Amino acid sequence: MIVSRALGAPGEEQPTQVSSQHNAGARGRRPAVFRMAEWDANLDHIIPSSVLPPLWAKLLVGFVSLVCFARSYDGDFVFDDSEAIVNNKDLRAETPLGDLWHHDFWGNRLSSNTSHKSYRPLTVLTFRMNYYLSGGFHPVSFHVVNILLHSGVSVLLVDVFSVLFGGLQYTSKGRRLNLAPRSSLLAALLFAVHPVHTECVAAVVGCADLLAALFFLLSFLGYCKALKETNKEGTHSTFWVLLSILLGAVAMLCKEQGITVLGLNAVFDILVIGKLNVLEMVRKVLRKDKSLENTGVLRTEGLLFRMSLLALGGTGVLYVRWKIMGTGPPAFTEVDNPASFASSMLVRAVNYNYYYSLNAWLLLCPWWLCFDWSMGCIPLIKSAGDWRAVALAALWFCLIGLIRQALCSEDSHKRRILTLGLGFLIIPFLPASNLFFRVGFVVAERVLYLPSAGYCVLLTFGFGVLSKHTKKKKLIAAFVLGILFINTLRCVIRSGAWRSEEQLFRSALSVCPLNAKVHYNVGKNLADKGNQTAAIRYYREAVRLNPKYVHAMNNLGNILKERNELQEAEELLSLAVQIQPDFAAAWMNLGIVQNSLKRFQAAEQSYRTAIKHRRKYPDCYYNLGRLYADLNRHVDALNAWRNATVLKPEHSLAWNNMIILLDNTGNLAQAEAVGREALALIPNDHSLMFSLANVLGKSQKYKESEALFLKAIKAQPNTASYHGNLAVLYHRWGHLDLAKKHYEISLRLDPMASGTKENYGLLRRKLEQMQKKNV
After folding, report:
1. pLDDT of 417-463, one tens digit each?
2. Which helix (H) or strand (E) holds 6?
3. Where is the composition biased (Polar residues) (predicted)?
4. What is the enclosing helix (H) or strand (E) of 177?
5. What are the Cα distances from residue 179, in Å, to 65, 130, 704?
6. Contact (CB, 8 A) for 640 and 622
C-alpha cells in the first residue's frame, strides 16, 4: 500500500492512501486522487499501458522528438544565423568574455542606437563554447545541440505535465507520484511533434528559445519541489523557492521571456496549491459574507512570504537587466511591426488581437509556416467590414469560455488543468504581445515554443472530455494518432526547408506572397549564386510591394551598376538615401555609380556622407581612395587607403592599391615597405605576393621576387598575369629559357594578352639572334 499526501487548502478532501475503493462520503464526492485516475483512464484507448512506466514514456517522447527534427542536423547557417553566429565577433577567442555581458545577441554594444536590446549572454556563451569545441563554424555541431535541447525539453515536459494533470501527490518516502501518466505522455508527444517548433530547432538562433524553455521548466519544477509538504500544511522550502527564482533569471539570460516563469509560479501557487475558487470568492463578496476574512489562501503566511520572494526576485532581476541594457528602447521600423505605428489606438488594439488569433491558428493548424511574417505579409485591419474581424471574435469567445471554466468550475481538478494550461499558453507569450513594449515582428513562430506547451495541455484535456462523453473511442484514438503522424511528417518536411536558404526563402513565397522581405531574400540568394537576371526580377517585386524598401533598392542598384545600367542605378540609390538619409551603404554605392558616370565631385560628397553616418567604414575609404587616384590626387588616395587598412587590417584591396600606386609613381622603397607590412598581416594573400614581387623585381631583388611569384602561382596556378610577370622577371634576369616557358604558359591561359605577346616576341627574336651568333 502506497501512502500519499496531497497539498491543499483547509476544507478540501485529503486522501491518505491510494485504494481501489471510493470514499464513503457524500454522493458524487470522491477523493481527488480517484477523480484524477478516472479522468486519466479516459485516454486508455489512445495510450497503451505498456508505455506508461516513466522511463519508457520519456524514452518514447525523446525518440519521437529526435525523429521529427533529425533531418535538420546537416543544414547550413540560414537567415539570422549569419548575423548571430558567423558574423558575431563575440564567438571568437579574441573577444574578452566580459564583453558578452555588455553586448546584445548580435554582438553589438547595448548602448548603441542600432542595438535591438536582445540581451541573451548565456545563449551567446553556449555558441562560443560550441565554436571552440567544434574548431570553427561547423553548422552540424550547432544543429545537433538544438535537436538534443528540444528532445530534453520534451522529456522534461513529461514531469511538468504530470503535475499539471495529476497534481502534487507524494509517497510516504517523499517521491512524487504521476497520477495522470496517459495525459502527461500524450501532451508531451503532442509538444514533441508540433511543427511550429521547427524554427526554434532547425535555426541555430532558436537555441535561445530552447535554453530559455529548459530553465523555465526547471524553475517551475523547482517551485513544485519547494511546495512539497513536510510536517504541517503551509510549510515550504525557502531554498527551493530561491533556486526557482535563480533558474528563472538564468532562463531570462537565455531569452527575455524566461522571466515569465515567476508569474506562472505565482499563479500555480495561488490558484492551484491554495485552491482559490474565484467564483466562490465573488459570491461571498456579493453576499458580504464575513467568512471571506477566514479564507485560507488569504491567511496563509507561507503563501504571502513566497509571493514576496517571487516579487522581489523578479523585480531585482529586471532592474539589473534594465541597468545593463540602458534605458533606451530598441529601434524598430514600421515595416517590422506596422500595427504598433498606427495612429489610432483602436486600429492598434484590433490588429494586435488579430495577431493573437493568427498565433492561435498556427498552434491549431501549423500548416502555413513562414520564416518571416512582416512587410505586408499581414495587411492591417482598418475597417469594421474586414472579414478577418471574425477571427478576433472566435479567439475571445474561446478564451473567455476557457478562463471562466478555469476560474469558476466546481471541479478543482478541471480548474487546475485549465488554469495551468492557460497559464502556460498566455504568460510566456506576454513579452511578445505588444502590451508592455513594441516588438520587432508581427508574428514569430519562435515565440510560440513555450506557449505551445499550454496548448498541448488544453488539447489533451479536450480529448479526455471527448473520450468521456462519446462511445466512439476508436474514432478519437484514430484522430489523435493521425494528428501525431501528420505533425511528425510536417516537422520532417519543414526541417528540410530550413536546411538551406534557397529552400527556406522559396517555401515562404506561397505562404506570404505579399511579403517584400521574402522576395528580397530570394533575390539576394540568387544574386549570391550569380543569377543576376532572376535576382533583378525578385528585387523589383520587393520594391513594388514596399516602395520604401531601401535595402532592396540598394541591392538592385548594385546589380544594375555591375551591368552598366548606371542611370537607373543612380535613380534607385538616390531614392534610397532620400528615404533613409543615414543609410551609409547606399551613399557609398551611389558614390561608386557617380564615379563611373565621371561625376567626381558628387561622388566625393556621397562617400563623405557615408563616412559621416558610419565612421568606421573601411570599404568606403577604399572607394574614396580609388576616386582620388582617378583624379591623380595621389596623397589623398594613399591617406584614404591607409585609413581603410587601419580600420580593417586585412583589407587586401586597399593594401594592393597602395603598393601599385607607389610602384607606378616610382616610390619603390616605400612600395616595398608597404608590401612587406601588408604580407606580415595577410601572409597567404597571393595578390599581395604578386604586387610586392613586381616591386622587388624592379628593384633588382630577383631572387626574393622569384620566390614570391612562385608562391603566388602555387596559390593560383591558372592566373595568366602571374606567369607573364614572372616571365618578365626571368627576361630581365637573363634566365631566358625560364622566361620562354612562363610566357608560353601565360599565353595558353590568356591568348589575347597583348603585352605578353609583345614581350614574348622580343624574347624569341633575342633567342634567334643568340642562336645565329652561336652558329
Report:
1. 898 999 999 999 999 898 888 888 888 999 999 999 999 999 999 99
2. strand 4-6
3. 14-23
4. strand 176-177
5. 24, 40, 82
6. yes
Cα gap 574→553, rounded to integer Å: 9
Sign, CA dihedral 284-290-292-295, equals negative
Contact 405, 414 (CB under 8 A): yes
- Amino acid letter for position 3: V
Q: Residue 276: its pLDDT value, please?
A: 73
Helix ranges restricted to H, 227-276: 238-254, 261-267
Which among 166, 169, 197, 170 has a CA at the least distance from the CA of 464? 166
* Dmax (CA) of the chain: 132
Decide: 412 and 12 in contact? Cβ < 8 Å. yes
Phi, then psi, of 384 in degrees rounded to 5: -70, -20
Q: What sign for the dihedral angle of Cα 736, 738, 740, 742?
A: negative
Q: How many whole angstroms separate alpha carbon 302 and alpha carbon 312?
A: 15
CB 258 within 8 A of CB 250: yes
| CA gap 375, 658 in Å, rounded | 44
Give the integer Cα–Cα distance in Å for 738 and 767.
12
Name the DSSP letter for residue 72. Answer: G
Residue 547 phi, psi (nearest 5): -65, -10
- Calculate the CA 385 to chain-centre distance: 36
Q: Where are the alpha helices (DSSP H) in 288-370?
A: 296-299, 301-325, 345-364
What are 199's three cell numbers? 524554427
Q: Please report which residue ranges of 77-138 form alpha helices under DSSP H.
A: 81, 121-134
Determine the Cα angle at 154 with ends 484 and 172, to 5°. 115
Look up residue 353 and give its three cell numbers. Answer: 488581437
- The residues near 426 (Cβ < 8 Å, ≥ 6 apart) are 451, 454
| 317-341 confidence digits (pLDDT tens) | 988 888 887 656 677 777 788 888 8
384 pLDDT band, cuts 50/70/90, is: confident
Burial of 99 (0-12, 13-18, 19+ CB in 10 A): middle
- Find the helix packing angle between 584-596 and 600-613, rounded to 10°: 170
Q: Between the CA atoms of 157, 162, 163 and 166, what dihedral angle is there, to the nearest 10 degrees?
A: 160
Q: Quick one: which of 279, 574, 277 has its CA closest to 416?
A: 277
d(C-alpha 531, C-alpha 709), whole Å: 34
CA distance 207 to 149: 8
pLDDT confidence tier of residue 93, bands split at 50, 70 and 90:
confident
Provide CB contacts within 8 A for 580, sequence distance 6+.
550, 586
Cell numbers given for 657 = 592599391
Under 8 Å between Cβ of 223 and 244: yes
